[in-house]
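Hi everyone, sorry if this is the wrong subforum. Our group has a chain we'd like a structural model of before ordering constructs, and none of us has done structure prediction before. Sequence below.
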Amino acid sequence: MTEDRTILLIEDSDTQAVLLTDVLEKDGMRVHRAATAEEGLEYLRAHRPDLVVVDYHLPGMQGDEFCRRIRDNSATDSIPLLILTEDTESSIERHGLDCGADDYVAKSTDSDVLLARIDLLLRRSNSDAKESSFFKTQKILVVDDSPTFLTLLEEELKREGYGVYAVENGEEALEIINNQQVDCIVIDLVMPGMDGIELCKRIKGHPQTRAVPVFVVSARPGREVVDRSLAAGAEDFIRKPFENEELMDRIRRLLGAVGNA
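Answer:
Right subforum, don't worry. Here is the predicted structure as C-alpha cells:
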C-alpha cells in the first residue's frame, strides 16, 4: 500500500477520473485531478506530487508533450510519470516512453496491475540505487526450463549490455542468488519441480533479493495469472509469445534505466 502519497491525475474524462481516483484513494493515496495538461502544469508550479498519471489523449496539449515539458524542467524532471493509453496503441506507448514517461498502462488494465506499477515507480524514485545503477553492468537472472527460449533470451539481453545468469530450474536460481548479486529476475511461470510462483515467493522472502524486481513470463492467459504473480510478489509480467523489444522495454523500466541500459 502506498499511503500518504500524492498523485497528480491528468484525465479529461470525468467518468475515468472518478474510477481512477477511487482506485488510488482506496490504496491510501491522495489524488489531485486536473482535466487538461495545462491545468497539470499550473498545479506543478506550486506543488510537487510523488507521481503523475497522465492520459495520452487530452484536449489541447497531449500527454506526450506534457511529459516532454516535465522532463525539460529541472524542478520536475525527476517526478515519475505514467501514461494511460488505449489497448491497441502500441506505437503511442513507445512514443510516450521516448518523450520521458517511465511507464504506460492501458485504461482497461486491472486495478491490481495499475497499483503494482505505481508502487514500483514510487519505490524506485525513493532509491539511491537508481543513479548508481547507471554506472555498472546490471545483472539479470533468467529462469526457464526451455533451453531454446533461455538461449535466445540470454543472447538478446547480452546484446543490450546486460550481464546474464541463465538457469533451467528454481533450485539453480536459488543457488545463484545465494552467491551472486542480481538486479532483476525473469521467471517462467510453468516449470517442472518448483514453479515460478513458488520461486517468486522464495525470492521475495530472501533478505538479499526481497527488493529485486521480479518479472514473470507466462503462456497462460487470464486474470488468474496476474493475481497469482502479484500475490507472490512479482512487479510485472508478460505473456508468451512476445516481441523482444517489448520485453526489453519492460526490463529497462523495472531496472529504472529507460533508455540508459
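For your construct planning: The longest strand covers residues 6-10. The radius of gyration is 18 Å.
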